Amino acid sequence: MWYTIPMNIEPALYLIPVTLGETDVERVLPSYNHDIIVGIKHFIVENIRSARRFLKKVEKSIDIDELTFYELNRHTDRKFIGEYLQALGQKKPVGVISEAGCPAIADPGSDVVAIAQSRGYRVVPLVGPSSIILSVMASGFNGQSFAFNGYLPADVPGRVKALKKLENKVYNEGQTQSFIETPYRNAKMIETILSSLRPQTKLCIAAGITCQEEYIHTKTVAQWKKEKLPELGKIPCIFVLGK
Q: Is 180 helix (H, G, I), strand (E, B) or coil?
């Protein structure tokens, strides 16, 4: 259960992590985040509807109608992003909320953070779950040097070429490689990985991280081929390659 500490919220751009699924906020977010959130009236969000739902999940008593939302996603005209920080220029705190996980990590929120930094505003990243970091932690792979590569090409030849390039980095540079796929194509991605990479290359499949359906397993390509593959459905998943 959340507890509230009376506090004055300093003017800053607060990067507010969101749960990765239907996980209870108390399980993955510290109470400090709650105390920051309830003190903010201006939010830059990837999706207004889901942001409102998240805020109500954090604190039921929040009056959504008192809040101002600015939408920042792939459809937003980058020329106007700087205007979203007007409240910060007036010494009022502003929060950034993505769809899931940590803002500005594989997320358009990085654009507004760059503007805040260039203007000398204070930027405060709050603690919360990142599927990218958590998957590397649980993979058993090199955590000293790793890279997140976002989405790989959708066409099969391009995807195979990209996978082999990532595999070469694993062996030549010792660098752990991770990437994601649109959830409904998870099964196809696994199939392509197993048919394209070396038998000894290790693959970690990390799905539904921090959620009830969490599935995180690491095996070699050869071992995965002998196993019954997980039925991931539309569960968000991170794929991690290592040795």
A: strand
> Residue 218 — φ and ψ, nearest 5°?
-120, 130
Report the length, in residues, of the chain.
243
Whether the predicted model's global pTM rises above the 0.85 cut: yes
Q: How distant, in Å, are the alpha carbons of 51, 77, 92, 127, 174 from that of 99?
A: 7, 19, 23, 16, 32
The tokens for 120 are: 């000398």
CB 34 within 8 A of CB 62: no
AA identity, residue 77: D
Taking every pair of Cα atoms in the chain, the longest distance, rounded to a whole number of angstroms, is: 61
Residue-wise DSSP of 28-57? HS-HHHHHHHTT--EEEES-HHHHHHHHHH
Rg of the Cα trace of the chain? 20
Output the tens digit of pLDDT for each of the chain's 243 residues: 444 444 578 999 999 999 998 888 999 999 999 999 999 999 999 999 999 999 999 999 999 999 999 988 877 777 788 888 999 999 999 999 988 899 999 888 888 999 999 999 999 999 999 999 999 999 999 999 999 999 999 999 999 999 999 999 999 999 999 999 998 999 999 999 999 999 999 999 999 999 999 999 999 999 999 988 998 888 999 999 999
Residue type, 210: T
Strand partners, 13: 94, 123
